[in-house]
Design goal:
Number of domains: 2
Shape: globular
Number of strands: 13
CATH class of the largest domain: Alpha Beta
Bound molecules: pyridoxal-5'-phosphate
Mean pLDDT: 92
CATH topology of the largest domain: Aspartate Aminotransferase, domain 2
Number of helices: 17
Strand order of the largest sheet: 1-9-8-5-4-2-3
Structural class: alpha/beta
Low-confidence stretches: 1-37
Strand content: 5-15%
Distance between the termini: 39 Å
Helix content: 40-55%
Length: 462
Amino acid sequence: MKNKNTDSSRRKFLKQSSLAGVGAVLTMGMTPSLLAGDLNNAARPAILGGPSAWDKAKWIKWPIWVPETDEKRVLEVLRSGVWSRAGVVNEFEAAWANVNGAKRCLVVNNGTNALIVALNQLDIKGGDEVLVPPYTFISTVQAILMNGAMPVFVDIDPETYQIDPAKIEAKITPRTKAILPVHILGMPADMPRIMEIAKKHNLFVVEDACQAPLTEVNNQKVGTIGNAGCFSFQNSKNIPIGEGGAILSNDVSFMDRCVSFQNLGLPYGTAVGTFNAGSVRIGTKVRITEYQAAIGLAQLQRLDAQTTVREENAKYLKSKIKDIPGIVPYKLYDCATRVSFHLFSFRYKKEDFQGLSRNSFLQALRAEGVPCSGGYTPLNKQEFLKEAFASKNFKRMYHKDMLDYDKYMERNQCPENDLLCTEMVWFTQNLLLGSREDMDSIANAISKIQASAESVKKSLEK
Ligand SMILES: *Cc1c(COP(=O)(O)O)cnc(C)c1O
C-alpha cells in the first residue's frame, strides 16, 4: 500500500517521454495543428490526427461463447422441455458452492434479487439501518430500500475505493442491523476489520460480491466471510449468463429460508410449516431457469483461467502506468490474496495534465482505440432516496425526523466518494483478457496524451 509515484520515477518518466514531451512545452501562439505537426507522427495523439495507439476492433469481445464446448448442454436442456428450475440449476448451485468452499448456494434470477432475498431472510426490515458504501452499483442500495430498511452511507477509503472501516463505527446507531460491504471493481473490502466491528456490535454482514467472483481475502473467497455473500451473473459480469445471481452462505437454516422465500414461501428443508401444506412465509418468485444454469456451467469452466489472466494483466498495466504524472492507480489491502478485477481503475489528476478535463482525457483515450469510462456518479445524491422517503410505507415505518431529506443528506455526506467520482477512470474486464501488447498499447496511449496534454486541451476545450 505504498505510493510509488515518487519524484525520481516522475523524472524518469519525463526523460523517457522527452521526445513526445516537446509538443507540450512549445511556445504559445502556435495553433494546435502546428504544435501537433512538430511531433513525430507516432507520438501525436490520435485525437490530434496521429495514429491510434491500438485498433479497438482487437479487444476481446464479451461475453465469450465457444459453440464446440458450450452448446451441447444448452441444447440438451432446450430439447428436454424441462425449462423451469430443476436438476441443471441444482448442479450449477453445487458447482458454485464448491468453487467457493461454501456450504450452500442458491441461484436466483439476478444479483439485485440475491441481495433482496438475503437481506429479507436476515429479517432486515422497516426501521432498520444498513451501513453501505456510496461507491457501488445502484442495486446495493435499492435492495436495502426494497426491504423497507434505511441505507446509511459510510464514506470510502480513498486509496482502495472500498467502504472505509475507520468510518463505520461512527455511523452505528441502535437501529443498525447490518453492514453491507461491496467488493467494488472486484477488489476486496477490508473484511478482517469489518468482521471485527460486526462482531463487536452484533451486526450481520452481507457481502455484495457481484463484481468479485474468486476474489480472496487471506485465501478465503469473498462472499463466504460474512453471514451471506451475493453474486451477479449479468452479461457484463465476470460470469455472464444474461441475467442471474447467487447467494452463498454456511448457515443452513438461513439458506433454507432463502430457498423458500424465492419460491413463493413454499416449504424447503428445515423451513417447514406446522401444517405441512402450502406456503409457510411471505415469498416472492425470482427463480432461475434450467437453460440459464446450462450457460452458467459453461462459463464456470473458463472462470479460473480468465481470472488469472486478468490479475496478471492488471498488475502489469499498473506497473506500466503508475509513474505517469497524474495517473494514480488503485491500491489493494494487504489481505487481498486474489482479485477478480471486474474493472481496472485509476484516478486521473487533471492538474498533472495541464488542466485537461477528465472528459477530454477519456475522449482522447477512446480516440487511441482504448475503450474507457468515468464510472459511477455519487449514489447518495440521487432522486430515488427522496422518492422512497416520501412513500406511504416509509412514512409509516419511520419517524418524520428520519425522513427529512435535507437532514438525511447532511448526515450522509461522503466527500471522499464525491471526489473519487470526478477523478475515476475505468477499463472493463474484457480488456484485461488481452495480451501484454494490448496492455502496452494502453500505457502508450496514456503517455501520448500526457506528453501532449496542452495541445489536446487547446483542441478540445476551446
Ligand atoms: C451488477 C451488480 C449488482 C446487481 O446485479 P444484477 O445481476 O445486475 O441484478 C449488485 N451490486 C453490484 C456491485 C453489481 O456490480
